[in-house]
């Protein structure tokens, strides 16, 4: 962490501030011990799988977390847009997978500026000949060579070529543009759902590697060891197993791209992690929820109802409402916290959470409630600063986000 020092606006959350009394709430809270555990856990898992890790930075867009991931051994960072790529580059990332198509002259120009740095390595996705032609012309005119990877998708899914024939035809289109270098094949399994999802995901990963082998035999790749990459934050174990089984470790560079693992959650990714552990009995420990949003009880208007100063502006609600975890009081030292998981958020407005309070749970105005969330991506992007705290809930630093 010594390479980056984040300055803090006076009066918000200076280092040493007590979260329960010195920080203006609501606040986004990142627990250092859990984050560091998660980073070590995933890095070890990926390395044991014979792969490399390029965490998806769009989850947090918090460069301080990027740096922790890179220092722990991540091969590079994954990002979703040219603007995100520029932000990551500005804070030290020098190898980026853009898990998306690079479309539009303004976005191409942002990447062209970064490619002026010979130490910057960049790969983006293509799935259509029109995009290939546009990229080939743009970068040729600037005397640059752009690394591209063919995106392979599924029918009814998101982006990506829908058949092996489309992949092979696109490889030929790329070869016709000297300003483009085909460096690998990419896919995203998170769009595969249904009762047979596990088997379908394994088959999808196998077919990706089979296509990579065909392309390699045809001499289509510009790299001696082409990249094969997939994996979101739910099915990374299946992708790792399929890649390791199908791709000789010396022939391809397998890259996994989970992002949400860095802070995990109390919802959809907690459920997904339980499924991973059920499939893989050899795994030790588990990822730990590291992100919370803290807010004050501001009103107790009726028996059994508390209104908390937390709303849609502060926390994700697309994959479930926030979950009350513990109650803290500013005057209690050390802040141990009381379990309030029996409370339940029933509705959110812009700046208010309606929380049912069961009998026997006594709350007071000014009490602080810590909330767990589901789908951390959409909580992060509501904040411009996050409190990086130790196990005593003292602020170590304030981490800015760059959305």
Describe this structure in words.
It is a single chain. The protein has helices at residues 32-48, 63-71, 82-90, 105-115, 129-141, 164-175, 197-217, 236-246, 268-279, 377-380, and strands spanning 27-31, 52-53, 77-79, 95-101, 121-126, 146-151, 180-186, 227-230, 253-256, 291-302, 305-308, 323-328, 338-339, 344-348, 353-356, 368-372, 385-389, 395-400. The chain has 403 residues and is α/β, with parallel strands linked by helices. Among the domains are: 94-258, TIM Barrel; 286-400, Lyase, Ornithine Decarboxylase, Chain A, domain 1, CATH 2.40.37.20. The strands form 2 sheets. Strands 1, 10, 11, 12, 13, 14, 15, 16, 17 and 18 form a 10-stranded mixed beta sheet that branches. Strands 2-9-8-7-6-5-4-3 form an 8-stranded parallel beta sheet. Strand 7, helix 7 (197-217) and strand 8 (227-230) form a beta-alpha-beta unit. The protein is elongated. The two termini are 21 Å apart. Residues 1-11 have low confidence and may be disordered.
- Enter the CATH topology name of the domain at 94-258: TIM Barrel
Global Rg: 23 Å
CATH architecture of the domain at 94-258: Alpha-Beta Barrel
The overall strand count is 18
Chain-averaged pLDDT: 93
Give the assembly state of these chains.
single chain
> Which stretches of 5+ consecutive residues score pLDDT under 50?
1-11
Proportion of strand residues: 15-25%
Which structural category do the helix and sheet elements fall into? alpha/beta
Task: Determine the fraction of residues in helical runs and give it as a percent range.
Answer: 25-40%
Total helical segments: 10
CATH class category label of the domain at 94-258: Alpha Beta
Biggest sheet overview:
10 strands, mixed
């Amino acid at each position: 962490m010594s390479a980056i020092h984040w300055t803090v606006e006076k009066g918000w959350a200076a280092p040493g501030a007590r979260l329960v009394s010195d920080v203006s709430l609501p606040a986004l809270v990142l627990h250092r011990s859990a984050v560091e555990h998660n980073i070590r856990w995933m890095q070890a898992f990926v390395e044991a799988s014979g792969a490399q890790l390029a965490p998806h930075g769009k989850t947090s867009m918090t460069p301080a977390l990027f740096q922790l991931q890179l220092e722990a051994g991540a091969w590079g960072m994954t990002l979703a847009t040219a603007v995100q790529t520029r932000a990551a580059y500005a804070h030290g990332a020098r190898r980026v997978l853009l898990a998306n198509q690079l479309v539009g002259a303004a976005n191409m120009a942002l990447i062209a500026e970064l490619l002026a740095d010979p130490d910057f390595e960049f790969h983006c996705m293509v799935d259509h000949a029109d995009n290939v032609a546009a990229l080939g012309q743009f970068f040729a005119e600037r005397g640059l060579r752009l690394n591209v990877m063919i995106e392979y998708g599924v029918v009814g899914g998101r982006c990506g070529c829908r058949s092996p024939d489309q992949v092979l035809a696109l490889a030929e289109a790329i070869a016709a543009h000297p300003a483009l270098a085909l460096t690998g094949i990419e896919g995203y399994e998170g769009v595969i759902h249904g009762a047979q999802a596990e088997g379908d995901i394994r088959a999808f990963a196998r077919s990706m590697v089979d296509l990579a082998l065909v392309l390699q035999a045809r001499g289509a790749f510009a790299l001696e060891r082409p990249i094969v990459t997939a994996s979101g934050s739910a099915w990374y174990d299946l992708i790792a197993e399929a890649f390791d089984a199908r791709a000789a470790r010396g022939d391809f560079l397998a890259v996994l791209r989970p992002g949400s693992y860095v802070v995990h959650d109390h919802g959809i990714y907690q459920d997904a992690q339980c499924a991973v552990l059920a499939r893989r009995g050899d795994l030790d420990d588990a990822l730990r929820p590291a992100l919370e949003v803290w807010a004050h009880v501001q009103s107790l208007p009726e028996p059994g109802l508390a209104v908390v100063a937390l709303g849609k502006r502060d926390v994700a609600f697309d994959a479930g409402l926030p979950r009350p975890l513990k109650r803290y009081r500013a005057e209690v030292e050390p802040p141990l916290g009381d379990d309030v998981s029996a409370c339940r958020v029933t509705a959110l407005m812009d700046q208010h959470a309606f929380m049912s309070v069961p009998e026997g749970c006594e709350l007071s105005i000014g009490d602080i409630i810590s909330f767990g969330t589901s789908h951390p991506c959409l909580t992060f992007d509501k904040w411009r600063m996050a409190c990086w705290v130790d196990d005593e809930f003292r602020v170590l630093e304030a981490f800015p986000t760059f959305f």
